[in-house]
Write a structure and sequence with these properties.
The complex is a heterodimer. Chain A is α/β, with parallel strands linked by helices. Chain A is built from 9 helices and 10 strands. In chain A, the strands form 2 sheets. Chain A has a 6-stranded mixed β-sheet with strand order 6-7-8-3-9-10, sandwiched between helices. Chain A has a 4-stranded antiparallel β-sheet with strand order 2-1-4-5, covered by helices on one side. In chain A, helix 3 packs across helix 4 (123-135), helix 3 (97-106) runs parallel beside helix 5 and helix 4 crosses helix 5. The longest helix of chain A is centred in the last third of the chain and has 14 residues, at 181-194. Chain B has helices spanning 3-18, 20-26, 30-55, 64-79, 85-107, 113-132, 158-181, 183-193, 195-201, 205-231, 241-254, 261-279, 283-297, 301-306; strands at 142-143, 149-150, 153-154, 233-234. Chain B has a two-stranded antiparallel ribbon with strand order 1-4. In chain B, strands 2-3 form a two-stranded antiparallel sheet. In chain B, helix 4 (64-79) runs antiparallel to helix 5. Chain B is globular and about 55 Å long. The termini of chain B are close together. The chains are: A alpha/beta, B mainly alpha. The interface between A and B is medium-sized, with 38 and 23 residues.
């Protein structure tokens, strides 16, 4: 039984009358791929925001690697090894693919208050960035502007950027959103190569991705986690079927 | 434009600037020495604004403040009999950087329209401060008692001063080029391009933006020290908000986020201003629409026209 890298206790967030997070408690074990699923409007985005540090919870705490990080900003959490990708592709459109990843490497490679030497000439940024691009299958696209990459390539670039800091926990917000079937399969195959080595929180609508990648699944409905368990347990859980999966089966 | 052609264009431009003093003598047009020197001083100021506006995405509508502080640093010291250029220019840079630190610390916490308004408001405060100090001539300003003195360099000698300004311009552009491609430069460009992503990879933009703001302030303070030596007259008009607007126009017209842009912008704006004002006293009626058209049709500025990105 491995220890928990992330522990969330009683996380509560309201927007006006809307209770977006209703006392969420969640434990993510070191090395597991933990999927969070739920119907639209369940509060997944708000939860991700609170885990990443962009949304401040009203109550509750987030502990990462044993440390209370509830009050830490998003950049501070990133530097501690909590990396994320975005639901809507978020890369530097006017930088090349390589520059995108180099910048992410730079964030974890010493001071950036260096004013004279061109960053692109730094081997210590360049070679890890090249390796990461190779790893996600973008090696041949290193010098292409991110804006000119295909959608699937941009999503892969995001993963490479998230990997750049050797994160202890990756927060992947719908990594296969908007992808074609073939691209989705390729991304699932790639993410499964990370399994075991990386701890991943996977927020995803695509059930193929969820059931082929997740070690455990938490189901979020109306801001509450109604069940956590292995994919088999979740499939069999009557409450989950009623609240969520049932809709899909009927559809 | 390939790097090779870019280098050739740069060398040609430099050669042209270096050739202005002998050509001015040859054609007996000393006025052009004066004009180009003034343009280069504004190019330095515009280049400093380009760092935060073009590369950092911070729309500062108060950059003339540092021209003023640089000018006052030199003028006030000269007023009290301190003529040493190193002290004067050192104070011009230091005081401008310090004021930029104070203004930046407050304004960079805001963004968008608020940032524009706050930077404008601070500069207006300094402008009215300048107007209200009678000791330094109030809104009339005062003559610069004497030009800054450097060992072995006489600024009263027109050509010497010209080449000094050219050297400062080249140095500022060179250091600027290094800066925007350094680690630091990559972070401020990244924060402009996509702030959410920049936070997510672990950079809080604030300290980097503030540092860029301070550097830009210091460099513009140096331009102010040059400007007051050029005009030999100190006036709060250095800090007028229209001056801030002109600097913004130079950057936008020349092409934001390009090192050569502000130089082209300064030349275009000031030469146009000079030509049109020699033609009619209502020159602003012509200049205004021209600027609007140029912004509409040259989105990437003059630098975008001359230095098209190599595909």
């Amino acid at each position: 039984m491995s220890r928990n890298i992330l522990e969330v206790r009683g996380l509560t967030k309201t927007f006006g009358a809307l209770l977006a997070s209703d006392g969420i408690s969640l434990e993510v074990r070191e090395g597991e791929t933990h999927a969070i699923i739920g119907p639209n409007g369940a509060g997944k985005t708000t939860l991700i925001g609170q885990l990443a540090g962009e949304v401040r919870p009203d109550r509750g705490e987030v502990r990462f690697a044993g440390e209370d990080i509830t009050a830490l900003s998003a950049p501070a959490r990133a530097r501690k090894g909590l990396a994320r990708s975005f639901q809507i592709t978020s890369v530097y459109a006017d930088f090349s693919a390589l520059e995108n990843v180099m910048l992410a490497v730079q964030a974890h490679a010493g001071s950036s208050f260096r004013f004279f030497r061109p960053a692109r000439e730094e081997g210590a940024l360049r070679s890890p960035a090249r390796d990461l691009l190779d790893e996600v299958g973008l090696g041949a696209r290193a010098d292409t502007l991110a804006a000119n990459l295909a959608h699937g390539e941009q999503r892969a670039l995001e993963i490479a950027m998230a990997l750049a800091g050797r994160p202890r926990l990756m927060l992947l917000d719908e990594p296969v959103a908007g992808m074609g079937a073939e691209e989705t399969q390729r991304m699932i195959a790639f993410l499964s190569t990370l399994k075991g080595g990386k701890t991943i929180i996977l927020v995803e609508h695509d059930m193929d991705a969820v059931f082929s990648l997740a070690d455990r699944i938490s189901v979020l409905v109306y801001g509450r986690i109604i069940a956590t368990g292995t994919p088999q347990e979740i499939r069999a859980n009557p409450e989950v079927r009623r609240a969520y999966l049932g809709e899909e089966v009927e559809a | 434009m390939s790097p090779r052609n870019r280098a050739i264009a740069l060398a040609l431009g430099l050669l042209l600037l270096a050739a202005v003093p002998p050509l001015a003598v040859l054609f007996n047009q000393p006025f052009y020495l004066d004009l180009v020197r003034r343009i280069m001083i504004f190019a330095i100021a515009a280049a400093s604004l380009n760092l935060i506006l073009g590369y950092g995405g911070m729309i500062s509508f108060g950059h003339a403040a540092y021209l003023g502080i640089g000018g006052y640093a030199v003028g006030v010291l000269a007023h009290y009999g301190v003529h040493d250029g190193v002290v004067q220019w050192g104070l011009a840079i230091g005081a401008s950087a310090l004021v930029a630190l104070a203004i930046g610390a407050v304004s960079i916490r805001t963004s968008g329209v608020y940032f524009i308004m706050i930077t404008l408001a601070f500069t207006q405060m300094l402008y009215y401060l300048g107007i209200s100090i009678q000791e330094f001539g109030g809104d009339d300003g005062m003559r610069l008692a004497a030009k800054s003195r450097f060992p072995g360099i006489d600024l009263n000698e027109g050509n010497t001063f010209y080449y000094l300004v050219l050297a400062v311009l080249v140095l500022v552009l060179f250091l600027g080029q290094r800066l925007v491609n350094s680690r630091f430069g990559m972070v401020i460009r990244a924060a402009k391009s996509n702030e959410a992503r920049t936070r997510a990879i672990g950079f809080s933009a604030y300290p980097y933006r503030l540092a860029a703001f301070v550097i830009a302030g210091g460099v513009c303070g140096l331009a102010g020290a040059l400007l007051v030596n050029h005009t030999a007259y100190l006036t709060p008009e250095f800090m007028n908000w229209t001056r801030s607007g002109e600097l913004m126009f130079m950057v936008i017209l020349g092409g934001m986020g390009s090192v050569a842009g502000p130089v082209l912008g300064a030349f275009a704006l000031l030469v146009l201003e000079d030509l049109l004002s020699g033609w009619t006293q209502h020159w602003q009626i012509i200049l205004g629409p021209l600027l609007v058209l140029s912004v509409l049709f040259f989105r990437r500025g003059l630098a975008g026209v001359f230095f098209r990105k190599h595909e």
